[in-house]
Amino acid sequence: MIAKWIGKRVIMGTIVLIIVSFLSFFLMHAAPGNPAAAYYGGNAQTLSTAEKERIETAFGLDQPILYQYGVWLREAMQGNLGYSAKEGRPVATIIQERLPNTLQLVVGTLGIVAIASTWLGLQAGMKEGSLLDRGLSFVSIASSAIPPFWLGILFIMVFSVQLGWFPSSGMKDVRGDGGLVDRLYHMVLPLSVLVLAHVGVFARFLQENVKAEKHRYYVEVARANGVPERAIRKMILRNAIIPYINYVGVTIPSFFGGSIVVETLFGWSGLGQLLVKAVMVKDFPVLMGAILITGVVVVICLFVIDVLMICLNPRLRRGGIV
Amino acid sequence: MRKEQKMLIFWLVILGLLVGFTLFSSWLVPFEPNAMDMNHIYEAPNGTHLLGTDQLGRDVLSRLLVGGRVTLFIATLSVVLSSIIGIIYGGISGYFGGAIDAVMMRILEAFLTIPSLVIVLALQAIMQGSVWRMAMIMGCTGWFVTARIVRSEFIRLKELEFIHMAKMFRTPLWKILFRHLLRNSLPAIFVVTIFNFAGAIFTEVSLSFLGIGVPPSIPSWGTMLYTAQNDLLVGAWWMGLFPGMFIFVTILCVQAIGSRFKQRGGQTHV
Amino acid sequence: MFKIEHVTVRINEKFILNDLSFTVPKGQITVMIGESGSGKSTMLSAILGMLPAQATVEGSIFFNGRNIVELAKQDQSVLRQRHFFTIFQDAANSFSPTQKMKQQLYGLTALRMGQTKAVFLAKMKHIVQDLHLPADVLERYPFELSGGMLQRCMLACALYLAPAVLLADEPTSSLDMLHQQEFIQQLKRLHTRLETTVLLITHDLDVAASIADFILVMKNGEIVERGQVTEIFEQPKHPYTRQLVAHHF
Description:
Number of strands of chain A: 0
Shape of chain C: globular
Number of domains of chain C: 1
Order of helices and strands of chain A: HHHHHHHHHHHHH
CATH topology of chain C: Rossmann fold
CATH class of the domain at 101-283 in chain A: Mainly Alpha
Shape of chain A: flat
Oligomer: heterotrimer
Helix content of chain A: over 70%
Low-confidence stretches of chain C: none
Strand order of the largest sheet of chain C: 6-7-8-3-9-10
Helix content of chain C: 40-55%
């Protein structure tokens, strides 16, 4: 059972990567001018004729397109993602600089959202009809209708322009040392926007699960037999969390989508901002690289979620006799 | 049930008003949306300019109403396109089943895994430009959920008695597909289309806000927020507040209406 | 042990139990029989103080001189924790699917007595062996055990706790014939060893015949007949009981 499940997930991850790489490769060909030129960007002009020929044969430009894709893929796997058309630096280096920033933001958001929504969802779900229960339903509906960037704009209006508490953009102070405190200080607004955009919906999902789980047979059995309330809560959470984790997995792509907008708004130099800039200035090599890496990161995140699922769900781990 | 009915009507009225105002904005707007008035730049909301003016002295309310037309037009067009693609893809997958279905579904799942904004961005890079192209791109990337719903509806329906009967009587394939399967899937498709519409508004404003959607010269709710980023720093809060309010209320209406229909659909099925 | 006096339960103005009075004598096995919908499970819920919120109760249920009906929710819970253990019908769903039996049995037994896990493990190991459960049962998940094994795990809890009262709601109806008999045998053994008061609810006359000291026959929320096993089976008085017994043989 577990082998089949893992197999399915691996196939799925592979397909995702193939599609992302196709998309990337397709971009290179759809880009105006010679693909090799697109690949080497601004440096293409400086190449000599001999070098150009070498590139053309190396990329197999006289070969069928599938072969070209293969060659490109091999290069990409070896870490050669080409050179930025605007900066002239290797795309791999640029991405290496950007990726940690995005990961900090996304992982930070995920962490806070996971903790906050678990707590909120459990509290609200256990106390049916309470203020928190009804309030959470309302907040989650409202928050899913607010575009995160508008929330960001409102935050900048209030906390940066009016109150002057937090910087409206950037990752470190001009005079700052770029240390952890400085970084966190700059992270407050983008992080809060991303957290607020997601936490309501996540908490609501768990809340519904907890409510459903609360009426299950085993809870009644436990309660009738005087199992302490703390232990019952633990049981309920333990079961309600499984579909919740699955839901987190499903929504992870939208986290990266959301971070694109929020990074741009707050001048957070991550992968998302890089993507948007690359589209604006038509820096195809960077665009291709950023898309490919985003795909890889999402697949890795989903893999982590899968591992978590296996840990949390004994049925996946052991398979049942019945 | 009475209360639910009332809420539905409430949301429909609000949405109707919003759509009505934007549709007939050309006749309704108090000012020509692109008329500049350098004597009245960055005016806070007042009696003449209800929602203030922008950096070129243009009336924000007028631009919002006209901009809403652009946003809603793109959203509508893209949803129509995505529904068509979704119905065809999901229909084929669901009707034929077996290996075709398995392969098509794996591919669909993979598409759902890639952040859709990333795909849109990529396409936007090679064919950026007009409002029409924008709608096309969004249509081509927004059909995944529709396809999945159509597939499951087709699978559910094709096992029912009357489809077997129709097959036995050698009803032509197109008739089975359109008359029976598609027609009976319409309620479910309707619900997912409503939610897609909300999603499309979201995508349009996000892209335009990033400066890579609708060209900034055309007013849309997204582009207005794009320019508002600079206006905020000089304290023109109304530039940021009102477009967002319009977006928020519109999406809230659409989602509320969608969930009402979803609940109702659930009741008739059970 | 229990003295039930004029208990009437209504749910949404509908009578579920109508003026019920009976006693459950200490140290004996009392069996309630009746078809589903006769109100026997509602009676159990009333004793446990776990009726649904929309139910109204009249009359009194005395346990050791205290009226359960008038106790606060909190005190009812304490009472259950101290003195009762209940085995329910659906063995397969009686346990949370994501926790090992070890943890769940610990929650059902030692935790409510305030004992440590080490004490629990030492004692439970013997009980598990005694009930012929697999040696590694504590390390398994519920879905890795059969219904019969799960129901015996509930018995294991009862053996561990040695409660004043053991309540059982159709404990055998989700089991096959073989496991039914096995369960009844084990239950009998438990009863002789602990001298626990047992109130068992069933629709199965075989079960009732093989274990009961005293039988209550229920129909439409009322007790239509009561008596020793021999009286009920050999000289049934009420037409409904006659019908039941006639169908049985």
